[in-house]
Write a structure and sequence with these properties.
The protein has one domain. It contains 19 helices and no strands.
Amino acid sequence: MEGQGHDRTRGMTAPGPGIDWDSLPHGGDLYGEIHLAETAPPPSGAPPVPIFPGLAACGVASAAAAWLSDHYHFPIILLGLLVGLSLNFIAHDPRTHRGLDFASRTCLRMGIVLLGLQVTFAQIGALGVLPFLALLAVMASAFAAALIGGRIAGQSHFASILAGGATAICGASAALALYGVIGKDRLSQAQFALTLVGISLASAFAMSVYPTLAAELHLNNRQAGFLIGASIHDVAQAIGGGYAFSDAAGAYATIVKLARVALLAPLVALASLALGQGEAGGPAGSPWRRLALPWFITAFLGVLALNSMVTIPPLLGQGALTASKALLLLAVTATAIRSRMDLLMQVGWRATVPVLTATLASFVAALAFSVILL
């Protein structure tokens, strides 16, 4: 037998001495059984992919980001993005896809809904007519600056809409809501992740610098509160920046910022009407159908109305705020995990230009209105 085996291979071409056939993928897979087993679709009777592996990985990454934020006092959303990007190799395993999709979509929508418990129509009315109109002008200037900056940097108008809306409303929360309308077929997750990074960095910078600038410019409490509440993107950073100036400025910055949060639903409705369906190949639908709000924005409005009519116990409101932050953190982390690093490298620094121009425009406009009107 040994001799026969030797004779059988005598006529074959010997492999080159520099090739290690054992280290090559499927090098000994003579008939391709290993390759076919790995690439074949699952049988029709196979159980669905469980949600737990991806959701558990996202939960652990989010918990790590929360721990780092608590101990080093860094923006939690930015840390969620960075931790998620460092773990994006997890998404190569198909078993994680269902859980990551659940976190990036369902958790996002539930977190947006719970934000409605943080604002009432009475708080918006307490702002006053002129400050509210000034706030709308600040938001419009931020949105327009994002469109202009995106065109100068050669970015798509979808990226500019995302950056402008997120800067005008409430940072990462608004970006997540708008991305659900835009869709990943029209804006890559890499572009979305870089926009979130820019928004988080801009908010962290503004929270540290704007109160000092307001003091150097000798603004009073009301002026400083409007400047900070109207120009800082994320809710937590806006409120924290206001209270860093004074308690009175912090209270007024909170009202201004919550008024911006309440305008999330109209902005998403306008984006949905203007852009139509976000899924590739999906029908654009009739104009009447496009007028319909996404369900989570409708639920956000319902919760906001309920909070305006019924007094919510403070403990419940605080719990809802914590839950909303946790759900949005899960969504951000899952999105970062699903982002491809090669696409992030291709997008480059130009992806952050719309955020930078919108941030600068919102600060200049808010400062001008705070000095003129208040």
